[in-house]
Every structure is written in structure tokens, then in C-alpha cells.
Amino acid sequence: MLDFGKFLLVLYLITVTFLYFAQRKMLYFPPVNSPTVNSSTLNSPTAQQDEIVFHVNEQTIQAWQLNPETSHALLYFGGNAEDVSANIEPFLQLFPHHTVYLINYRGYGASTGAPSEQALTQDALAIYDQLTNDYQTISVMGRSLGSGVAVNLSAVRAIKKMILVTPFDSILNVAQDIYWMFPLSFLLKDKFESWRKVEDINADSLVIIAEQDEVIAPKYGHNLITYFATKPEVNVIIGAGHNNIAEFSAYQLALAEFMQ
Questions:
Q1: Mean pLDDT, the chain, as a whole number?
Q2: Would the N or C end of the chain have less CB density within 10 A of its end CB?
Q3: Closest CA to 100 of 123, 138, 74
Q4: Which ranges of 157-214 would DSSP assign to H, the alpha helix?
Q5: How far is residue 213's CA from residue 22's CA, in Å, rounded to a whole number?
Q6: DSSP string spanning 29-83?
């Protein structure tokens, strides 16, 4: 019969094994009831927004295109459980001089495939490459999980402006503070180590931090800022939390002014 110490060890190893194999289901949370592509809206000559698709690495990536026919593009990569189409109306108002692409990750909405760090970052590069000849400039905005995608893209492509909203230095650091008892540096597949990449970014950058962020503590965003070769503009939205930051007028004003 196992003694109590051996029982705890076995339980620990079972938990570690579960975490390893279930980690992506625990990391990625596609929103429930996300809208699907309506083909009747594609290529509408009058609409300010169209549902479109990108074909990337044998997958279909759903997106919304806002303000078509401008000379400047803004790619938006949203938060973990975010329905990016909820940004259509505010972004039409905030970014009137940019054609905005709200991109659904693999496995989100009508996008096919399964999310992973490699898949999301490679899809972002492929979408950029498909659009690069259509615009004078391309900028990028990433919120929460999307900040890791935006940082990777900005480090290896010519980006005019980069906006990071409630960013982290790495998902590894965020997770390690929560699950301190597990060796996540060895277990975690998708580390999103943005701190390693920001020194290679030449884009004008804005970092927006929610003062009361209960999901990604402000310290992770402040730590990321220290690794920039060229220090970004920083805006802390007083009183804002992780999920309600978009409701603050200071947040909306910061976005509009930075992208003018």
C-alpha cells in the first residue's frame, strides 16, 4: 500500500501529465456563438465592412474588413475569448483613415484549424504578405493574447505603428505565477515570449495597460516595456479592468490620437 508521500507524488505526476496534454484547451477559449461568414456580404460595393476570408497554409481564416479602399491597413488580433466582430462599430469610428482587418484565429468563429502559437504567428505573417502590395503602410494592434501575435509580426515585418493593449511579457510568466508548483518552462508549448522580440521592433509603438487588470496584471506589461530598444508611448487607463477597458473614453481617445 502506498504511503501518503508516494500518493501525493503519483497525484502530482498525474496532474502534470494532464496539464501537458490538455494545455491548449486550457489556454485558448474561442468565443461561443461567434458569427459565421455570410457570403452575401462579400465584396459589397456599398458596405463599410465586409466579411472576407484569407486562405493560409491550407486553412481558411475569417476576417472582417472595415473602411475599404484606403491606402493604409491596420491588422487587429484580439483577446483570447474575444468576438472580434464586436469591434466593427467602434473601429469604424476610431480608425476612419485605415482599412481595418479584424482577424479570427484558427478555430475561432468560422476559421478552420486549431490554435497554437506557431499557427497564429505564421497566419499573421501570411496575411501581412498577402496585403503588403495593396497598402502604403500596414500597422498592427494586438489585445491580450493578440499582443503576442502583434509583437512577433512587428519584429519581422515592416510595420508602421504597433498598438499593444493589456499585453504580457510572456504567457509563461503569467502562467508560472499562477501554477508556481509545476515546471511550466518545460511543459508549456506556447510561451509567447514577447520580451525576447520587442528589441527588434522599429515601429512607432503604443502600450495600453489597464490599471485594474485582473487577468494580466499590469506588472507584465510594465516589464515588457523595459525590453523595447526604443521606448514606446505608454498609457495606463485608470480604473479599467481587462474586459471593460474598451468602455473607457481615455482608451478610445488614446487609440484615435495614436493612429491619426
A1: 91
A2: N
A3: 74
A4: 171-178, 184-187
A5: 26
A6: -PPTT-----GGGTT-SS-SEEEEEEEETTEEEEEEEESTT-SEEEEEE--TT--
Tell whether pTM > 0.85.
Answer: yes
According to DSSP, the residues that pair with 64 across neighbouring strands are 51, 102
Residue 49: CA atoms inside 13 Å, Cβ hemisphere, count?
22
Q: What span, in angstroms and rounded, lies between the C-alpha atoms of 221 and 23?
A: 23
Are residues 181 and 139 in contact, defined by beta-carbon separation less than 8 angstroms? Answer: no
Three-state DSSP class for 135?
Answer: coil
143 neighbors 166 (Cβ within 8 angstroms): yes
pLDDT tens digit sequence for 80-118: 999 999 999 999 999 999 999 999 999 999 999 999 999
| Residues 68, 103, 204: CA angle, nearest 5 degrees | 75
Cβ contacts of 143 within 8 Å, gap of 6 or more: 76, 77, 78, 79, 82, 164, 165, 166
CA distances from 32 to 35, 59, 142, 198, 236 (A): 9, 21, 21, 32, 30
